Structure formats: structure tokens, C-alpha cells
Amino acid sequence: MNERLIKKAEDYIHNMPSLPISTVKVMEVCNNPNSSPADLNYVISLDPVLTGRVLKLVNSAYYSLPQDVTTLVRAIIMLGLNTVKNLALSSAILQNLRERSRAMDMEAFWRHSLGVGVASKLLAKKRGLDTKRLEEYFTAGLLHDIGKIPLNAIAPEAYAVTMKAARQKGQRLIRAEDKLLGVNHCVCGEWIVNAWKLQGPVGDVIIHHHACSAYKGPYRDLLYNVALANYFIQQCEIGFAGDSYPELFPETWDVLKVDPDITQALSKIVTGEIERAQIFLKL
Question: What is the pTM of this model?
Fold first, then answer.
């Protein structure tokens, strides 16, 4: 085990900027079953920057609403608490995790991440899931690989060697990370989840998306949905997050109750939807 590198990763995560207090309060409000749109409106309205981001997202091509939404409370009523919570969370985390290119091409990394978020949401929609839950499927897909960012930042040369070794040996990146670095991006992801108190559906996806079969938690559907979206986006070669050999869990189709042909339907629309979702990377 590379204890020095692990310590550097832990220190990097410990020293990351905290999530804005407004975002933390948004999560607290939305996790309270007794909260109302007025409660959420009050918390967000205290932060002009967050208010601007939410309204910018709501009025973007990503949602294609028939008319502009000019007030925050209207956005919350139209989209629901859970959707607005995930918009706030996604925008805050993307702001905190901006990294310059090191071992990974970060533009390609975020395009992959955005692709997984979009594909996860499209897949959930085609499966007929509650529309109020769709943004959670997008957010979990968008953020699933954030554990790679500390490794990319603290040990760019070693991480480049690790990605190359995984590609040359035809193995999954997570195995090469364990062998060559002594820590993998899911473990780093768990440290971020704990540091930012992201426990719950999105946190479980960040931690367990390479261990779906062993997962015993309550978000199994979300986990497999994101894992399938990840496999699909890698097969389509949309962006790149360092893993040349994506994994498809054999039980996926039974867990999600879908036919493999569903990915053919996604392939016809995913590129256009990714372009519409680019707004998330421009906030």
C-alpha cells in the first residue's frame, strides 16, 4: 500500500473548499419531509449566486420550458424540491472541483461525466420512472467519477502510468489503481462523500458504482442505472475518464427490468441531449 500517496489524497480532500453553506442548507431542507417550496425558496434566495445559477439552468435549453421562469419560487413549484436540490448540488460541486489538465484531459473527463448523467436520466425516463426522480439520476451520473479528481491532482505522472497500464493489460482502471497506487477512485470518492456529507443516493453511486453486485443498500436501481449509463457512454466513446474497459454487470437487465435494445434507442438521442446539458459545465 502506498501510504504516502494515500496521505496526500486524504490531505487534498481535507483541504478542498467546503460546499457553500447555502448548498448544505438546501440539502437539509430537501431531506426534511415536512419542508415546503417556501422553505427552499427562502434558503436559496439568501444566496444571489445560487439563485442565478438555478434560474439560468431552469431557463436553459436543457429544460426547454415554453416560457422563461423569472422567479425562484416558480422554478421550485414547476420542477419540485428534489430537482432544484440536485441542480444546486451539481452546480456547487462542479464549481469546487474545477481542475486543470494533468494526467487526464479534464475536458474529456467532464464530457464523459456529463454523458453518463444525461444517459442515466434518459434511461430512467425510458424506464418510466417518476419524473420527480429523474434529476437525481442525472446528478448521480454526473458525479459518479469525482473520486478520480484527487488522484489526478496529487499524482499526475503515477496516474498517467496507471491508466496506460490498465489499457495495455486490458483491465479495468480500478484494478490498476489498487495495484499501482494502493487506493482507487471509489475510495477517494467515499472520502469526498464523507467530507461534504453527500451520504444518500448520490453518495452511494460515487462509492459503489464498480461494485454493484455486492451492494446491499437501498439505492440499487439508481446504482445499476448509472452503471449501465457509464458502460453505454464509454462504448459510444463520448469523452474519456481513463477507463478503456468498461464493465457491464450481467444481472443489469434483470435488475432494471429492461431489454438490451434500450441502448439503441438512447444512441439516437444522447448526443443532442449532451449538447443541451453543456450549460452545467458553463455555470
Answer: 0.92
